[in-house]
Amino acid sequence: MAKLEAEQRPLARPDETSTFDDGRTLARRQWLAAAAAATVAVAFDAARGAWLSAAQAHEGAARVPDLDGELVFDPAALEEAADDFGHIVHRTPWAVLRAQSTRDVVRMVRFANRHGLGICMRGQGHSTNGQAQAEGGVVIDSRTLNRIESVGAEGARVGPGVRWLDLLRASLERGLTPPVLTDFIELSVGGTLSVGGIGGATQHHGLQVDNVLELEVVTGSGRLVTCSPRRRRALFEAVLGGLGQLAIIVGATLRLLPAPASARVYQLFYTDLEAFTRDQQRALDDGRFGYLEGQVLPLPEGGFQFLLEAAAYYTPPELPDDAALLAGLEPLNGSTVIEEYSYFDWQNRLAPLVESLRASGAWDLPHPWLNLFLPASSADAFISSALAGLRPEDTGGGPILCYPFRRSELTRQLVAIPDSDVVVIFGLLRFAAPDPALVQSLLEQNRALFEIARAQGGKRYPIGSVAFSPADWAEHFGACFPALVALRGRFDPNGVLTPGQQIFQRGDSP
Ligand SMILES: Cc1cc2nc3c(=O)[nH]c(=O)nc-3n(C[C@H](O)[C@H](O)[C@H](O)COP(=O)(O)OP(=O)(O)OC[C@H]3O[C@@H](n4cnc5c(N)ncnc54)[C@H](O)[C@@H]3O)c2cc1C
Known about the structure:
Layout: E1 18-19, E2 25-26, H1 28-36, E3 43-45, E4 50-52, E5 62-63, E6 70-72, H2 75-81, E7 95-98, H3 102-115, E8 119-122, E9 138-141, E10 148-152, E11 155-158, H4 164-172, E12 176-177, H5 189-193, H6 202-205, E13 212-219, E14 224-227, H7 233-239, E15 247-254, E16 257-258, E17 262-270, H8 273-286, E18 291-298, E19 304-314, H9 322-326, E20 337-342, H10 343-347, H11 351-360, E21 370-375, H12 376-388, H13 392-395, E22 400-406, E23 422-428, H14 436-455, E24 459-460, H15 470-477, H16 481-491
The structure holds flavin-adenine dinucleotide.
Flavin-adenine dinucleotide binds at residues 84-85, 120-127, 131-132, 142, 160, 182-184, 187-188, 190-192, 194-199, 243-244, 248-249, 463, 498, 500-501.
């Protein structure tokens, strides 16, 4: 471990041999090859805040630690890291680390500490508000840390950049599945474990963060640490759903369950919000479905319909009992649609839609999303009033999610949830026209709706686009905030980690 402490030495000139931290030598030939790749940083000029290629490096610059991957600073890499699925916030880092090892992460976090640089990991960049960006800092791209090390009944051990889609494929080969999957599964494990990870199975198994057995993390001070419910529990708890504020997840052991073969999917339609939520509550109460979600569907002629979407998982010869599953539910007469999917196709159901959205360019539109957790007692009233003010251009055809789950299934303290037995997730997954005035008005609408929800005990699911001040964050975390501040002071004393969440001011060390 001591070897990982990179020293700062003047760069060797190209005609010399340069000794690197771990004793390896960089011969002149290798130096010249590095110089040819002009976008790879080999040094940092702290006075100018500039990364330097081999050709630009000078003696006074701090040498970049020896890396298995590459630190790049070409415009294309910086531009990608300064963008996300929201396409609204753009904070440009000074460099992007394409890490090839945990050691790379350790070394760059330590380097960031020495030079006062913000640093964060970026998974698939599917945040919508700059959460995985680091202005003038370093973004670690986790896509190269995508190894599935093992899959078995004891769990799956994976790198942070593994997408849930890839894990699902690998685990199904062994007849296993993650207990909870998000609706869209091309998200990284590190990315969803930093926020929560909710889906139609949350009613039974909590969030994805509730199904983690062990983590390997690099703390803000650059220590590589293993944590679990039995080892360094406080850190384990605070990293899960901790929005990258204490440590970067470099490995996770995830719980797996036996996988069913098939999904029978039920779509029930309603014209009345109350009837819809009443049936969702009935289904939640007895847990009759393996998957339970719902959507609000704008009608072409104005107004809304409501869709209760549920799935029963099974493995033939056992078959779902339709009559029992639909008993007591009161959708519109004759509206119920029943479809069969393989379990994999159901979990990956958004893939064809996403492909067509990518092809049409809609995937690249601004996405000023609003995602709220509402106490069930006030959810109907809140949703009715939010829908009443909604114009078609406010969602641009993007889905409006609405489904309940039980708070008791959720165990992680930093995932802020209303103090209510039943919680409803409400999401305006907006696809906005690329008109800055419209986007700005939607961001303002997000803030206004958030404030109404907060006054009723609601919380923001921090994946979307709502402007938040440090005071908002303190209120968001509530009684957990002092503990988070103390842990931040302990594990990220220089305040370098994940500045894009804007929870702490830069360099804020409690
Ligand atoms: C189309 C779509 C569908 C979605 N559906 C769902 C859904 O059904 N359920 C749900 O819960 N969410 C959903 N989300 C939201 C999504 O879960 C979050 O935005 C998630 O953080 C995105 O994962 P990512 O890999 O893109 O992370 P990024 O956006 O890259 O990062 C998110 C945050 O996590 C941090 N981070 C990333 N990796 C690590 C790591 N290894 N260690 C520490 N911090 C890290 C980043 O710095 C950043 O702060 C959806 C998003 C989209 C765009």
